[in-house]
């Protein structure tokens, strides 16, 4: 078919339709422009600045905190060789906290979104209880866990009574306290995406599974969980990523020895040791490691809605 015949074809868009399409595209690009500028100024440029700083070298004979541009890749070697155990510990704590938040948050989301569907007042009250901790400072919420897990607190008393802890055992300044704080602080980030996903779940699919004589567990495993995977994926990412770089929980609930997380090290090297290249190298390593882990996770468990 020639160009002239194509232009005369009923299915070919008219000149006015093409003009309208171009206008819509321009409007779309203009709507994206503020967000693109924001990301450029406050994400892309800082990342390149961080990368450049991580390659700086100390000024010969200079004072503390004086560095000059260079290509000192040894900063990365030193950062990895000195703090690889801390990096692994951070990922381990974040992974445990993410799994714990999933085990706690999924039943909560299922109860509110599916079991209580139609009972708007009760749903709203429970959602408010989940969101309510955000009205208090992150540091205050973490500090409260020191009182909850203190040696004379109720949790330790119950654990002693059940012989879970030895008589001289304690929970404060332990890995357990750090993971508990991470789980608590990031639990809403896990629960809310799952709730939003389950809230759109068509319950007729669950009824159809029951009609086909599936057990409740089989229905949950083969129908509910697969349909809620976008929420699970989003929740785990929103929990694992900030938990990996968190330093508040480890600083307030840990012992600064066996519970040190990589965020504490970065904070210390930036503001106390004034080692900007070393802190930048650690920050960049952390960012790249998280990116690699997230990409592997998405490719393994991702869904069509997210990849």
TrEMBL record:
Q: Where are the transmembrane segments?
A: 29-52, 91-114, 121-140, 175-196, 279-298
- The chain positions of domain ABC transmembrane type-1 read 87-297
Against InterPro entries, the record matches this protein to: MetI-like, MetI-like_sf
Where does it localize? Cell membrane
Membrane topology classification: Multi-pass membrane protein
> Which keywords has UniProt assigned to this entry?
Cell membrane, Membrane, Transmembrane, Transmembrane helix, Transport
Predominant location category = membrane
| Top-rank taxon | Bacteria
**CDD domains this protein is in?**
TM_PBP2
Q: Which family does it belong to?
A: Belongs to the binding-protein-dependent transport system permease family. CysTW subfamily.
Question: Do you know which PANTHER family this protein is assigned to?
Answer: INNER MEMBRANE ABC TRANSPORTER PERMEASE PROTEIN YDCU-RELATED, INNER MEMBRANE ABC TRANSPORTER PERMEASE PROTEIN YDCU-RELATED-RELATED
Q: Please state what the protein is called.
A: ABC transporter permease
């Amino acid at each position: 078919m020639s160009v002239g015949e194509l232009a005369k074809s009923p299915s070919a868009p008219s000149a006015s339709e093409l003009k309208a399409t171009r206008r819509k595209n321009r409007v779309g690009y203009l709507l994206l422009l503020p967000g693109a500028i924001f990301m450029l100024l406050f994400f892309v440029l800082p990342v390149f600045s961080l990368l450049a700083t991580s390659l700086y070298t100390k000024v010969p004979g200079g004072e503390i905190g004086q560095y000059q541009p260079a290509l000192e890749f040894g900063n990365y070697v030193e950062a990895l060789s000195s703090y690889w155990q801390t990096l692994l510990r951070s990922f381990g704590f974040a992974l445990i906290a993410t799994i714990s938040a999933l085990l706690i948050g999924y039943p909560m989301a299922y109860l509110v979104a599916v079991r209580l569907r139609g009972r708007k007042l009760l749903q709203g009250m429970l959602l408010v209880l989940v969101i309510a901790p955000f009205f208090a400072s992150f540091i205050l919420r973490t500090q409260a866990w020191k009182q909850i897990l203190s040696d004379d607190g109720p949790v330790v008393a119950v654990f002693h009574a059940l012989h879970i802890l030895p008589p001289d055992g304690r929970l404060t300044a332990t890995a357990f306290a750090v993971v508990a704080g991470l789980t608590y602080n990031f639990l809403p980030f896990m629960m809310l995406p799952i709730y939003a996903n389950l809230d759109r779940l068509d319950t007729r699919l669950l009824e159809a599974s029951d009609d086909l004589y599936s057990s409740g567990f089989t229905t949950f495993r083969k129908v509910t969980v697969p349909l809620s995977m976008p929420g699970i994926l989003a929740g785990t990412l929103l929990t694992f990523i900030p938990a990996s770089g968190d330093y508040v929980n480890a600083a307030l609930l840990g012992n600064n020895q066996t519970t040190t997380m990589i965020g504490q090290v970065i904070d210390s090297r930036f503001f106390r040791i004034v080692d900007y290249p070393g802190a930048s190298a650690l920050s960049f390593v952390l960012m790249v490691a998280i990116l690699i882990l997230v990409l592997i996770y998405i490719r393994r468990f991702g869904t069509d809605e997210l990849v």
